[in-house]
């Protein structure tokens, strides 16, 4: 799935917001923090754009961390002094393990660490007791669909083709659910699809989907996938609208409750144990960049090995990830500020 981004336009949006900050960032200390944090964010990202991968995760992560302070300052759900962030609120360990197996944990819910508090604002889960693998976080980002760290079967984001919602009133929300992996399509059965969708509760709650017509009486009708030339495919899925017949706008609104935003698009994201719901994409970025920045800072020899195209199978994937961090994150930050301030 190609994701069209315009980082310069996002920086313009962020800079333009500083004269009249949104949400609760309009006055006092919150206004000052909002403006100062966004200035630091932009300078960190501009600096990251002119260095190589040896130090880039440090600038990008700390730029995102400062953006988190602007997000908290603007958040309408954070009252009193709860918008003030202290500590990272997230930890990485297992740097002696292979790169995909680096472990990530968060602080407890309700604490003031940046990751925990911003997650709370975005209704995104934390997981203080059980470690999540770096690869698990990596695979939650749409841009990494073509850059797997291993060959395991992996739950990845499913693009929700919202533009396909037709204009007539209808009791069903019907859209193509995209980027279904080959292993599910090759199996071709209803059971294989149902087993796959266990990780996607919102999709699993569907009313029906388009099927191939059974060729003979008693034969099960199977999912009618559309395959892509580059691998994977899509399936038109239907959800019953709670109120019955609904307008296109109402059906879109219903889709928004089931998906997460990413750079102007909507995705069904998998729910990973022990999480109780899907991670917000901004927090997936945050988790991966934190782990990479800690590896680069405290284990520089290991980091240099991981980014060496002569010595690491992950080097090109890491390079592409860090390049896209500079272009994708400004859009996510700008969109998230709107999300928390309205």
The count of β-strands is 10
In terms of DSSP E residues, the strand content is 5-15%
Radius of gyration: 21 Å
Amount of helix: 40-55%
Morphology call: globular
Based on the structure, what is the oligomeric state of the protein chains? single chain
Number of helices: 12
- Straight-line distance between termini: 29 Å
Mean pLDDT rating:
95
Unreliable spans:
none
Q: How many structural domains can be distinguished in the coordinates?
A: 2
Write the topology of this structure.
Blueprint (H helix, E strand, L loop, with lengths): L6 H10 L11 H21 L7 H19 L15 E4 L9 E4 L7 H8 L10 E2 H5 L19 E3 L11 E9 L1 H6 L2 H8 L3 H4 L3 E2 L16 E2 L5 E8 L7 H11 L1 E3 L2 E4 L12 H18 L1 H7 L8 H27 L1
Antiparallel strand pairs: 1-2, 2-3, 4-5, 4-10, 5-8, 6-8, 7-8, 9-10
Can you walk through the features of this model?
By secondary structure, the protein is of the alpha+beta class. It has two domains: 7-154 and 274-341, no CATH class; 158-268, no CATH class. It is built from twelve helices and ten strands. The chain has helices at 7-16, 28-48, 56-74, 114-121, 134-138, 182-187, 190-197, 201-204, 248-258, 281-298, 300-306, 315-341; strands at residues 90-93, 103-106, 132-133, 158-160, 172-180, 208-209, 226-227, 233-240, 260-262, 265-268. Strands 4, 5, 6, 7, 8, 9 and 10 form a seven-stranded antiparallel β-sheet that branches. Strand 9 and strand 10 (265-268) form a beta hairpin. Helix 2 (28-48) runs antiparallel to helix 3 (56-74) and helix 3 packs across helix 4. 41% of the residues are buried.
């Amino acid at each position: 799935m190609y994701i069209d981004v315009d980082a310069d336009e996002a920086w313009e949006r962020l800079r333009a917001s500083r004269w009249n900050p949104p949400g609760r960032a309009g006055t006092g200390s919150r206004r000052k923090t909002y403006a100062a944090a966004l200035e630091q964010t932009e300078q960190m990202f501009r600096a990251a754009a002119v260095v190589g991968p040896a130090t880039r995760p440090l600038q990008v992560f700390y730029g995102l961390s400062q953006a988190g302070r602007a997000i908290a300052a603007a958040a309408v759900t954070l009252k009193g002094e709860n918008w003030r962030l202290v500590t990272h609120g997230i930890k990485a360990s297992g740097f002696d393990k292979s790169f995909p197996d680096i472990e990530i944990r968060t602080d407890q819910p309700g604490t003031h660490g940046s990751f925990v508090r911003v997650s709370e604002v975005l209704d995104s889960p934390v997981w203080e007791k059980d470690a999540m693998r770096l690869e698990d976080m990596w695979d939650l980002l749409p841009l990494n669909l073509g850059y797997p760290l291993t060959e395991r079967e992996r739950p990845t984001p499913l693009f929700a083709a919202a533009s396909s919602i037709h204009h007539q009133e209808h009791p069903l929300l019907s859209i193509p659910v995209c980027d279904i992996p080959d292993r599910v399509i090759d199996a071709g059965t209803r059971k294989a699809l149902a087993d796959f969708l266990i990780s996607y509760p919102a999709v699993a709650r569907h009313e029906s989907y388009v099927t191939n017509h059974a060729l003979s009486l008693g034969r099960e009708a199977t999912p009618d996938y559309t395959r892509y030339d580059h691998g994977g495919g899509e399936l038109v899925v239907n959800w019953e609208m709670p109120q019955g017949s609904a307008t296109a706008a109402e059906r879109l609104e219903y889709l928004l409750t089931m998906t997460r935003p990413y750079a102007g698009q909507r995705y069904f994201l998998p729910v990973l144990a022990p999480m109780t719901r899907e991670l917000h994409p901004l927090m997936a970025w945050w988790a991966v960049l934190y782990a990479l920045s800690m590896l680069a800072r405290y284990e520089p020899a290991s980091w240099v090995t991981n980014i060496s195209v002569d010595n690491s199978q992950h080097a090109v994937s890491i390079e592409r990830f860090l390049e896209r961090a500079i272009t994708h994150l400004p859009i996510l930050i700008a969109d998230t500020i709107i999300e928390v301030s309205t």
